[in-house]
Amino acid sequence: MQDSVGKFVEISIAVVPGAGACTVVSKEIAFDDHSWTVHCYPRGAPGEPGAGGYLSIHLVNHTNVRNAKVLFQAIVLCRATDMAGAGVAPPRDNYHASSVFEYPAQGSRRFPWPRVVGVRDLHDRHAVSGYATVVCGLAVLRHNPIPAPPSTYAADLAGLLEARKKFGEPDASFAVGGRTFDVVRSVLAARSSVLKAELDSAAGDMPDASTATPAAPAAMPTIRPEHGFSAATFCALLLYVYCDRLPRGAEVGCAVTTELVGELLAAAEWYALGRLKLLCARRLWDGLCVANVSRTLRYAVKCRCPELRSACIDFLTVGHNLKEAFPTEDFGWLMKNSPEVYEEIKRRFVAKNGGGRSLVAGGGDDNAVVCTSSSGQSSLSG
């Protein structure tokens, strides 16, 4: 599945006819977890082809990111022929340059566009009061490799028409993390076979409800699960059960952090809620970075989520991500407790980066992660 995020910035460039090299004009483009800088060289970057005669634009990425496609567009606004109005020409007369590329690129974070427009044209057709305006747009087309199956909410509640209209009065409760959650048994039982089993077990220990009277109503069964999840996590689980979505803001009593989503992934595994597992995996993927990839991969391994596991391993094989993630405590846990995952990381790294590349985390031999010889053989130390 693919979505996109992006932003436009406007850059004014001083145009001085007959002048030598002009100072580079830079502007930041930041949105979500992306950070870029656009550098405009009015007479070309030093050493590049055509330097001195053409405007060139360089795009620099500052973020460790997942594989994605980037759409970059530069529009040099053309001056109107009627200078009395000191305006700009119709959009069709503007100079457009665009490109779609993959990033991060192997060995580089800088993406140059030389010879965007000639210096003479920049002065004669684009400058207004000595300045030319360049509008730069950047859009990141993100592909999420973890599928989200269609909602099973309606099917889960098939035959429970009254429950869909109104859940009714609570008839059971869960004691989790020092809090008590009153629930409707029929709704929970319809959504999860594990919840149904916990409810049935607790109901079997209660007195016969047929002996209840208005003066002495039957007590609601209280379930005390053995999983040990936090109250916020169980609240998020119930939100999914009743509303079929993940929490937002602080509606479960705290912010929706990576740790909370990771624990909710474990809760989804415990209660056999497959769709909730994938929704959590997608949320974790959307927030993935070098700082948390090892922990996220640890969640995927412990909660048996192969989709998230594979996506994290692919992320680690990009650029220097493995080198930077290697020293973390969570990566150490993976090496000790999941050697098969570590072996798979090495195999994919060698397959993606080729047999001639070496990757070492740190400065000494004891910190070597993956070493590849020119023959393509790999070895491990540390």
Automatic annotation (TrEMBL):
Q: Which InterPro entries match?
A: BACK_BPM_SPOP, BPM1-6, BTB/POZ_dom, SKP1/BTB/POZ_sf
Q: Where is the BTB domain?
A: 170-250
In which pathway does this enzyme or protein participate? Protein modification; protein ubiquitination
Q: Which SMART domains match?
A: BTB
Question: What's this protein's family per the entry?
Answer: Belongs to the Tdpoz family.
Protein name as it appears in the record: BTB domain-containing protein
What organism is the protein native to? Answer: Urochloa decumbens
Phylogenetic lineage:
Eukaryota, Viridiplantae, Streptophyta, Embryophyta, Tracheophyta
